[in-house]
Predict the 3D structure of the following.
Amino acid sequence: MGQDVPAGASLPRRDLQLLHALGIYVYYIPQQTTGRQSFYRTQLDKFRILGLTQYERILFMDGDVLPLGNLDLLFELSMNGTLQENVVMRGLFEPANGGFFLVKPGPLEDIQRVIEWREETALQLPYPHFDPDIGWGHELTSPWLAQKEQGTNWTFLAAFADQGLLYYYTMYHQKSVSFLLRDGTAENWQYAPDGSVHLRNHVSLLNFSIAEISAIPGRHHHYKFPLNSFIHFTGAGKPWMRGGPPEDCCTEENKFKEAKYYWFWELSKMNEALNLGIDFKQHWKDGKHRPPLGLHPVYAHALNASSNLLTPLERVYPESAADFNTFH
């Protein structure tokens, strides 16, 4: 997992102990000393996972995604050829949703060159500093498809930011991508001999499923695997931004009332089991907690961003073997 850490800051010691006890490797994303920090640039940091070439596949999930079960099956379907090496979720208004996707790692320099070209081009263009015809480097001759929209230019939701880069990289740079649809099917697109990308096949995933937490009500119930296997708290709908836990939350009886209740129930169980000492009422006494970089990117963020994914990640370890064993 990666975390953008300000100079001199680090994860709390007990958090680090817990993560290592759970077998989770922690990497710090170094603070950039050039350009402007912004929501846009932080979004691009997610593509650093492409440089983790010790793995065959990596599943990225935004920090506001709550998995409802084991997602190993998604890796298996990509590895055995049922799905392509890159797997993305087709959104309502965008062809590739940047909050949940699986990729095959590769040379990080490739995507860095794409980002540098896009940000250098932004400096030469008037507002919105983004060419809707060329986008991230490809003129669309066939339409992009979303659940509710389609088009032949780079004007879909966050096309100028992470979702545009994800679509370009998987579809037109790697030319190998599966688009997950909400009806339980997937489109497999791959490289053609003439250098283009074409639809290889349309596969059904209806015979696949995982043991999931199915009692939580929400939109995910209307979807099929794997889109019913997680909840994405988008925008301002994040539990930690809505004034804290409800008065009747955090009990066995109410944990499945809605997704927010389940999120706080899980947090309360961790708080109790690990003796973290979080006072829920005190922590949220000031109401909504808004992130310092806002909730979404804007066009101007690309100006003088100087995004650099090549600065090495810092692997972080517990302070001592005794620390590591604390939660075993």
Residues 1-8, 321-328 have pLDDT under 50 and may be disordered. The longest helix spans residues 108-124. Residues 284 and 324 are 31 Å apart (CA to CA).
